[in-house]
Amino acid sequence: MEFANKEYFLLLLLIIPYILWYFLQKKRGEPTLKMSDTYPYEYTPKSWRIRMIHLPMLLRCLTFALVVFILARPQTQTSWGNKTVEGIDIMLAMDVSTSMLAEDLKPNRLEAAKDVAAEFISDRPDDNIGLTIFAGEAFTQCPMTTDHKSLLNLLMNVRTDMAARGLIQDGTAVGMGLANAVSRLKDSKAKSKVVILLTDGSNNMGDLSPMTSANIAKSLGIRVYTIGVGTNKVAPYPMMVAGGVQYVNIPVEIDTKVLSDIAAATQGNFYRATNNKELKQIYSDIDKLEKSKMTVKKFSKRYEAYQPFAIAAVIMLLLEILLRTFVLKRIP
Q1: Which of 40, 155, 212, 222 has the fewest Cβ atoms nearer than 10 Å?
Q2: For residue 218, how many other CB atoms are within 10 A of its CB?
Q3: Distance between alpha carbon 234 and the CA centroid of its chain, in Å?
Q4: Is the peptide bond between 107 and the residue preceding it cis, with omega within 30 degrees of 0?
């Protein structure tokens, strides 16, 4: 059973102050009778009416709880079906060089790329997805996995200042980044294997050229989508100085020809992102191009299931009224 409006369950907390009020009010308003000696009544057994004195209060609480259950809209579901999913194996290859700190995308290139990649991952729950990061060298941040929660945590842990702090050699080794991603896909049994490579510069480091890595990807049937991120001409870049941060304009040098050739060689596409909106649209386009193939046969029907709670609430309310009016009637 599911509840469409679970927030109404918070109303059940009102029962607690009601119970406290009930016993405090009862204690203050209890009638008394002065007697010279109560010894004869010490062992007198309690009648069944005295034992049931709090039953109306209990019935009122149960009635209120049932009304809350009705407001929460209990529902049942009848469904049957089968689902066959042909997953896609995807490696994200992301540039983390110091130039990715440029703020032509907000808050900077890398954070913008991380946010859009996280949304892309969340929209593809059936796929194996991994993450490679590269600057002057490359390594796997997360191997391919369907545990997307762990993948997203590792993605968010990619710092924008990794190269600046010396955690990874600075530079732009596009060929090494692509090769690392391809190595994770080479043993994949999936029918569709994809690399999404994002960079803001030109290859200037590494032992493998970008086209060598692209040819390896082509031989393994891996399609590569390349994204050149950054505005045209110059971009604001934060420089640390003694007084704090000073912004300077750095030239944007994206090797669009190499990125286009990589995509063409592997039957992928090359994209250019100059702002956050374009970057988001690019990932959306890739998401549409690389949809998982699935055969789904499913039937589902949802039923409102409040009727038993409503009947029980009416019975409880009537029983409470009868007890309070006739059986447990109190004389003022």
Answers
A1: 40
A2: 18
A3: 36
A4: yes
Residue 276: helix, strand or coil by DSSP?
helix
The C-alpha atoms of residue 306 and residue 313 are separated, in whole angstroms, by: 11
Structural contact between residues 75 and 4, judged by C-beta atoms closer than 8 angstroms = yes
Helix (H) or strand (E) holding 139, with range, is strand 138-145
pLDDT tens per residue across span 265-294: 999 999 999 999 999 999 999 988 877 554
Radius of gyration for the alpha carbons in the chain, expressed in angstroms and rounded: 34
Residue 198: which of 89, 292, 90, 107 has the closest Cα? 90
Cis peptide, bond prior to residue 251, ω within 30 of zero: no
Q: List the chain residues with pLDDT less than 70.
A: 27-44, 46, 78-87, 292-300, 329-332
Query: Distance (Å, rounded) from C-alpha 82 to C-alpha 105?
Result: 43
Question: In this structure, what DSSP letter does residue 145 have?
Answer: E
* pLDDT number for residue 235: 93
Structure tokens at 99: 């130039």
pTM, two decimals, is 0.64
| Cα 171 from Cα 113, distance rounded (Å) | 18
Cα-flanking dihedrals φ and ψ of residue 79, to 5°?
-150, 155
User: How does DSSP classify residue 54?
Assistant: T
Beta strands in 159-292 (DSSP E): 193-199, 222-229, 234-241, 244-251, 270-273
